[in-house]
Amino acid sequence: MNLGVHIPDPEQLAAIMAGFSAFSAVVVVSWPYVFRDTLSDRMRRVEGERERIRQRERARLEEKSRVSLRVEPKRLFQAIVDRFRLAKQAEDGEIVRKLSMAGYRGHAAVTAFLAFRLIAPVAIFAACLLYILLVVRPEAPLLLVVAMAAAMGALGYFSPAIFVRNRITKRQQSIRRSWPEALDLLLITVEAGMGIESAFRKVGEEIGTQSPETAEEILLTTAELSYLQDRRQAFENLGQRTGVEGVRAVVTSLIQAEKYGTPLGQALRVMAQENRDMRMSEAEKRAAALPPKLTVPMILFFLPVLFAVIITPAVIQIMST
């Protein structure tokens, strides 16, 4: 039964297949010339942009170094450190690390810290001795007065360390408060297609209005990414300089992404939410600790006034009757 379907002859079918094969071969051969692969060109442009960023950050860091990091210590401080050989106390690197966490960097900061730790006890001892002898004028023997002034002077040895510790606490608090917003900005810039150096530089410029400390650390990391051969070292330095757990977690993720090539978007989003939750938890903890702290002031100052307000009218009425 003929259904009107035309079946081509084997010779025609072979000719069609041969023509199709020839056309496919021509397309395959001419494809690289007609549609050129732009991946290599894009990679070269990215590499060139990274090199330009590195040169710009090198120039910026050199300018900043001439202003702050390469400031020569004062001659008095340097003379004191050299005379008493105090530089050995900073050989372990602990003083340098603490000063870096407090925001003081360079040889001048270390020299000033060592000199102040020697000058402060002497200055406090002299000030206390003069105050006791000239202002208080006690009946106690002179030896006891000198011993009291010496005890106060001994406490002055720890005053520079206490000052640095307070600076570290305030700096970490500022970084901890602004770090979730910095992570949000970093996430936006990374997902927009920016490189890690450009993303860090953009975040450092934008977060400076909220937290200059965070902007300083991020921009310093950007400069180190341009200078150091090992990018992992730049990320590790960021965690060591801040000493904040949230920053160290982000540093660990950045190092893993740099090593294994994993995407950063999801990790940054999760860590931003975790840091925000940690900030809220800290605020709730402080709010929960407020009532016990208010107990003693209320007992000493509020309750006596309340009792006086309640009892005084009754006392006045009893006395009048």
From TrEMBL:
Stated membrane topology is: Multi-pass membrane protein
InterPro entries (UniProt xref): T2SS_GspF_dom
Domain (Type II secretion system protein GspF): residue spans on this chain? 183-311
Is the keyword Transmembrane helix assigned to this protein?
Answer: yes
A Pfam family matched by this chain, by name? T2SSF
Compartment(s) where it occurs, according to its Swiss-Prot or TrEMBL record: Cell membrane
Mind naming one GO cellular-component term on file for this protein?
plasma membrane
Q: Tell me the domain of life.
A: Bacteria
Question: What is the protein's name according to its record?
Answer: Pilus assembly protein
User: Which classification does the entry list for the species?
Assistant: Bacteria, Pseudomonadati, Pseudomonadota, Alphaproteobacteria, Hyphomicrobiales
